Amino acid sequence: PHKTEGDLEKLTFLRSLSTLSRTLSYDETTESFIHEHISQILDMLIQQEPLHSLFSPVRQEVFIAITDLSYQDVNLLHGSEDRSDLFNVLIKSIITLPSIKTLNILQTVMPSGQYNTESLYRQTFQAFCEMLQCMVMQDPHLENLGRILEHMEPWLQSAKDHERERATVSMSQMLGCLSRHLNLQPPLQFQKLGNLVALMALLCGDPVEEVAQEAAEGTHYLLHITLRLKCITNDKRNRQSLKEAMKKCKEFLEICSIKQFYSNPFKIAQVFEVFLSPNELGQFIVTTLDGLKNLKHPCTQQSAGELLVTLVKSAETRFEKVSDIIGAICVRLPVISQPNARQQALSVVSLFISRPKYTDVVLNHLLFHPIPFDRHLSELWRTLDVDLPSTTWILWRLLRKLQKCHIVHQEKMDYVAVAATDALYEVFVGNKLQAATYRLFPQLLMALLIQVHHSIGLTMSDITIPNGVYTKQEVTSTSTPLSFAIQATKTLLLRTACWYEFDAMEKKKGWNLLEGENFHLEGVSLLAHALLEKHDILAHKVLYLLIPLLNRGNEKHRLTSAAFFVELFQSPLAKRLPSRYTITRLEEWLHHENQQFRVLSLKGIDNLLCHHQEKEAIKGMIPVILSSLSETDERIVLLAINILRNLLDSMDFTTLKTTVQALFSLFSDARPNIHLLAVNLFGDSIKKVKCKDKKDIEGQILESLIPLLLHLQDEDDAVAEESCRVLTICCQFLKWKLPREVYNKDPWHSNPSGIGVVCKFFVSE
Questions:
Q1: Where are the domains of the chain?
Q2: Which of 681, 668, 661 is nearest to 722 (CA)?
């Protein structure tokens, strides 16, 4: 019942085909017929064989027929897509058979009678192995070896033990045969040596002992093939390096027996590394990474991790396509579940990024996986583990990626700015680069504050994302470029022990100020002031850093830098700065078309005057400062008034007179603060007039009397009191004695006689 009716006919046909293959005279017509018709027949025959059982030698005879034809240089398994498909079907028909134990059980349940299943299986499998061996022996250019590996690779990594064992045995026997009958001729077409070495190395650590032992034996043969391969392909100019590689290999093998490969797969990496080209090293890494995805066998993941780290440490600077390796790690991270294996994959990134040769390559590729869209990268950034000398270099290069985004104005934000900001945040959280974070604190702080400024009002849709950037994971609605920049700034302060500054920003709503379009610079000033109060050494480092930054980048870059800069003028260290960095720059900003620069200029001047008495240098700016009194921005006017007060003692009469006139023009200003300070400074200015100059300013004082008198009844008590004080000063200047009714605070309409006395006084005077 288990024997199909046509089995005898099939077997007769296949055996006849084998006989014919050895006796036919081959020409173009014969080969064409075979390729066109025989291939289809074989494909049909093998497709008819059940995958779950083995009851006839049809498979065996198909393998034998193909082998016999191969010996006549008629290859039915490559050269076209159909032949490649036939090869896949043949492999699957033998590899996916149930295990021998299961086949024996099937024979017990469904006896076939004619054949012993176990014996038939072994004969069939051996025929399959001999078919593969014939394919590589007949090909001195090793092109078929690459094709066989391509078809066998999925089975070498199969989750089913018996499938993996069959694939390993067949590969090992094939490599053994090739090793014994090696007859290589250029040009050699085998381009997957790194891939094959990695597969065999992983199998040497297989949990199934038979698989590991077969793989170790196959690796022994592969080493022999590799040595011969490199002797043929090695450039004569590199002959010396090949000799050194062989010497190193020989020394290692004398210390460590090849038989130990199956229990110590990482030693394969040490032996083969010296022979692998940069491209083959990359193949080894990527193939080994696939071993980390093996969820069924943790020991395979462990072997893969050891292989990765060993090879990267050994080959160190010989890799070329590092970006492909980093990309492979990023793609595979989500499916590497075992903690140790995951950590080893991450450590490979640390090894590469710590080499200056690869730092930028690694950073660029990691930033192609922005954390907002690939949260698995958070762990990578947080666990970066590099030697202390490399930490500053790595953090500096990452920082530069962010800084370059601030140089020119762009309609949309470059994705690198967001990716680098978030990467910095994760680095700060992980705290692995702590020393470098302290060392680069000034640069990091300013770059992040500038990024905050650029991010105000933007959403994730305002980011330019080029093709190739990983964006598969959704970003939460609360995530914005601004939120990333703020969290990075906060974490930087906490990681560098700037707790006082962080607390000051929290208590005074400094973060809200930083996030506001109109208040960002106030937030920057608040943070700068707090830093100067508690960590003056850090503040001074920032001060020196800012000098070259003030003229760089776009306007937001310069504004944020300027806001921090002028706040630090309160430091005694600001005295040491050459005037070209302080006075000259402040004067330039005072004429700037952007109002915010004018505000910062006046604030800087005010800070210099309050703390360092730079009056002589600033006196030349008084005309521009006076013109600032006509500005509509209340901040500018108030700062200008305060600066004039500080300069009052150093003014000559002409300047003083001009100041008095400018202040008088503010008496009609409806803004209480401006009005109050203008009246106050007006009175103090009058006091500074010397006797010899009194006559020249008398007219201005007389003009001010009525406005002052009227403001005695102002609704704002402070304005009324100040007007009264200044009116008294003016009358004393004129040597007038005011009637006491002037000082009566009752409303004039309720005291008509009193106002009559006041009016009569001013008329008579």
A1: 1-135
A2: 681
